[in-house]
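Appendix B, record 7
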Amino acid sequence: MSAFESSIKGKAGILTGGSSGFGFEMAKAVVARGGRLAVFSADEISDAGRREVEAAGDGEAVFLHQDITAPGAADAMVDETVRRYGRLDFLLANAGFAIRFEEPLLEMPAEKIAAAMRTQFEIFPIAFATLALRAARVMAPRYRNLPTNETGHRVDSGAIVATLSVASVIPLRDDLLAYAAAKRAALSVTESLAATLGPDNIRVNAIAPGFANTAGPRKFYDRFPNIRADIESHTHLKPSFLHPGAVVPTVMHLLTDNYATGQCVVLDGGYTNNTRLYFQEK
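Structure tokens (predicted):
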């Protein structure tokens, strides 16, 4: 480990949405590195999944039921984590789901669109912002006055990492109107919190994964092979639909780096790179 990174061994964190997909892979990675994790999810994790996380390493994970949009959810998650572990060092804000509009937008009732928008905004920018600020209130006293090393850099930092989407950085599709708007708002929250919490030595970053090879997306793209084909044609690296574990190296870097903040790392296999190749032999 270099002078510019820290370890999560022995540290305690919160993970939202850890029963499957990206969150499940993050949980295993934290436990594998000796971290302690309070995992909050609206869905129950299977017994097999729980055993897999517990066997990943010498860290610890407890799985708890929590609706992140419920009143008082941020306080409840932070208080429970501190009660169990006596400290809070990082937050992985991963929970969420996409509401899709699979019909012409001009033919949809306005209230149906508005209701979906409200739901998506409650999940992403609102729940994320409130939980991040509540967590930072606990992290700040530990991290704001840490000494620097011989390079002038602090030897450790608090960390907040949000799971966003490629929909937060580029226009994507008409069916994701509400989802994309909420994710883009969450990107703005990430940037604002990075500036707000930087003086307290708490870093705030995000990842923007592309299209995941998980049960929900597979079911959707099986129904719409034309959309699947379009994604396949625009993704330069393969597979076009990534395994959720592919985000882990970047997430672990953002947890342990001590200088990056306000960044959103796009993990989409090149989908957002619109370069066209007309003269290259295949």
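Remarks on this record: The chain has eight helices and nine strands. The first helix runs from residue 21 to 32.
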